[in-house]
Automatic annotation (TrEMBL):
This is Monovalent cation/H(+) antiporter subunit G. It comes from Herminiimonas aquatilis. Pfam families: PhaG_MnhG_YufB (PF03334). The keyword Heme does not apply. Keywords: Membrane, Transmembrane, Transmembrane helix.
Length: 124
C-alpha cells in the first residue's frame, strides 16, 4: 500500500496546507462555540466554519487519493456537496427553533418580539 512518503512534493505541499488550514478553521469554530456567551452567538461559530473547514479537509483528501491512485477520486466531491447543502439548513433550523422557543416563553433576550421577527400581515 502506498503511503504519504510516496506522494510527490508537488502534491504533498497542497495536501499539507489544506489539512492545516481546515484544522485551524474548525478549531476557530470550536473556540467560538466555547467562548461566546449566548446561544445565538455560539451557533455562528460551528455553522460557518464547519462547512469551510470540512471542505478544506475533503479537498486535501481528494487530492491525496487522486495522486496516489493515479485516477480522479470523486467520493469527496459527493460528500462536499452533501455537506454544503445540509450544514447551513440544519443551522438555520436550529436557530429558528430557538427563536420560536424564546417567543413562546416570552423571552425578550433576543431583542425582538414576534411582531418584529415574523410579520405575517400588516397592522395598520
Amino acid at each position: 500500500m502506498k503511503t504519504f512518503d510516496s506522494l510527490p512534493a508537488w502534491a504533498a505541499l497542497p495536501v499539507s496546507l489544506l489539512l492545516i488550514l481546515g484544522g485551524a478553521i474548525i478549531l476557530i469554530g470550536a473556540l467560538g462555540l466555547m467562548r461566546l456567551p449566548t446561544f445565538y452567538q455560539r451557533i455562528h461559530g460551528p455553522a460557518i466554519t464547519v462547512t469551510l473547514g470540512a471542505g478544506c479537509i475533503l479537498l486535501a483528501s481528494m487530492l491525496y487519493f487522486s495522486v496516489l491512485q493515479s485516477r480522479l477520486v470523486i467520493h469527496e466531491i459527493i460528500i462536499t456537496i452533501f455537506l454544503l447543502l445540509t450544514a447551513p439548513v440544519v443551522a438555520m433550523l436550529i436557530m429558528r427553533a430557538a427563536v420560536y422557543r424564546d417567543l413562546r416563553l416570552g423571552k425578550r433576550v433576543t431583542g425582538a418580539d414576534a411582531d418584529e421577527v415574523y410579520q405575517f400581515s400588516k397592522k395598520d
